[in-house]
């Protein structure tokens, strides 16, 4: 455990979270903010400054006591340089020197920046549903889809600019004529499920003049249809809603079968808001679909389970990154590194 405090930061497309911890797996304090994506990166940086002041002030922690910071960023990152490559949701982040900014603006000596899905996967591996499992494949399925592979408690970083971008895997769309190929994220994310449901609702209304329970529950406005409304209707026994979910389940199962063939994970963890659909309409059908056509020699060598750490998962992972960064920059670590050289 590092001496002093550690700072964990989650920067998403809709949510900003800052947490304090000491490297013992516990979250001592948390500040949460809603992001205005249209305001761009400068507005988020100002929110980070404000939340940082509030977090330290509420706990009575002097800034000089923060020994390291970790950032889980909602998009691809160049981890070696501490810079986001881009953001698909918020403008102004492309090649932004985020690690340097945190060092200078928040006065933190050691900073690590990783993709948010990688950061969440690390947290689940160290503290959550993946403890003791390696290799571990983690997916976060929300407004988008991100993935991570954790090997022996460490993030697999590929060539350094990200890896396991499973949301961009090309998969067949089983509900379209001829099963055309589309990105997994376009089909199985919360946005993808809602978009399909909007199309179904509008087409049904145009063809028969009949509304659909999902459209009714959205106040008759297709633009207000969400994946949550689709899931709620499916739980109530609506066959059309379950068919919309089945499109997403088939696409995700296809992607997971490819991942199993390539990675042979010991455990697959599904997190994110869409996975809150639950056992009957998400996990159980996906397990059956994966098992039915998975690479036969690997059948039974892995399981598929829900994530365990909830909304703070990225903050927990960011604190683990902070601990690693602080440990590597400690005087002792620097001396040992010099000796090894």
From TrEMBL:
Assigned keywords, A-Z: Kinase, Transferase
Entry EC no(s): 2.7.1.4
Record-linked SUPFAM superfamilies: Actin-like ATPase domain (SSF53067)
Gene Ontology MF annotations: fructokinase activity
Coiled-coil region: none
Highest taxon in the source lineage: Bacteria
Pfam families: ROK (PF00480)
Similarity-based family: Belongs to the ROK (NagC/XylR) family.
PANTHER family found in the cross-reference section: BIFUNCTIONAL UDP-N-ACETYLGLUCOSAMINE 2-EPIMERASE_N-ACETYLMANNOSAMINE KINASE, ROK (REPRESSOR, ORF, KINASE) FAMILY
Protein name in the entry: Fructokinase
């Amino acid at each position: 455990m590092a001496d002093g405090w550690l700072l964990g930061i989650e920067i998403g497309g809709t949510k900003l979270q800052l947490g304090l911890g000491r490297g013992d797996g516990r979250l001592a304090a948390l500040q949460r903010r809603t992001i205005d994506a249209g305001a761009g990166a400068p507005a988020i940086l100002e929110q980070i400054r404000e939340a940082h002041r509030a977090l330290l002030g509420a706990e009575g922690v002097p800034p000089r006591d923060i020994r390291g910071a970790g950032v889980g960023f909602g998009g691809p990152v160049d981890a070696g340089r501490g810079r986001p490559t881009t953001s698909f949701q918020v403008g102004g982040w492309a090649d932004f020197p985020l690690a340097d900014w945190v060092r200078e603006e928040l006065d933190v000596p050691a900073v690590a920046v990783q993709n948010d899905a990688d950061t969440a996967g690390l947290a689940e591996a160290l503290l959550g549903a993946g403890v003791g499992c390696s290799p571990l494949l983690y997916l976060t399925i929300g407004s988008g889809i991100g993935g991570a592979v954790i090997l022996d408690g460490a993030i697999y970083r590929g060539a350094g600019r990200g890896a396991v971008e499973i949301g961009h895997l090309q998969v067949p769309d089983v509900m379209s004529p001829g099963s055309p190929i589309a990105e997994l994220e376009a089909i199985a994310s919360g946005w993808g499920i809602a978009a399909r449901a909007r199309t179904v609702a509008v087409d049904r209304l145009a063809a028969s003049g009949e509304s659909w329970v999902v459209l009714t529950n959205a106040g008759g406005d297709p633009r207000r249809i969400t994946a949550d409304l689709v899931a709620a209707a499916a739980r109530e026994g609506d066959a059309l809603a379950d068919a919309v979910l089945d499109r997403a389940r088939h696409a995700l199962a296809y992607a997971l079968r490819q991942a199993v063939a390539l990675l042979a994970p010991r455990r697959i963890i599904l997190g994110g808001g869409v996975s809150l659909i639950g056992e009957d309409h998400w996990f159980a059908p996906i397990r059956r679909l994966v098992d039915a056509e998975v690479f036969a020699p690997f059948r039974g060598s892995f399981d598929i389970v829900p994530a365990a750490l909830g909304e703070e998962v990225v903050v927990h992972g960011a604190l683990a990154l902070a601990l690693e960064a602080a440990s590597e920059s400690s005087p002792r670590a620097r001396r040992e590194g010099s000796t090894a050289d």
